[in-house]
Amino acid sequence: MRFNCPCCGERGAEEFVYHGDAAATRPDANSPTAMADFIAYTYERTNAAGVHRELWYHAAGCHLWLVVARNVMNHQIISVARARDVALAQTAQATCGAQSNGGT
Ligand SMILES: [Zn+2]
Question: Are 64 and 7 in contact, with CB atoms under 8 Å apart?
Answer without folding.
Answer: yes
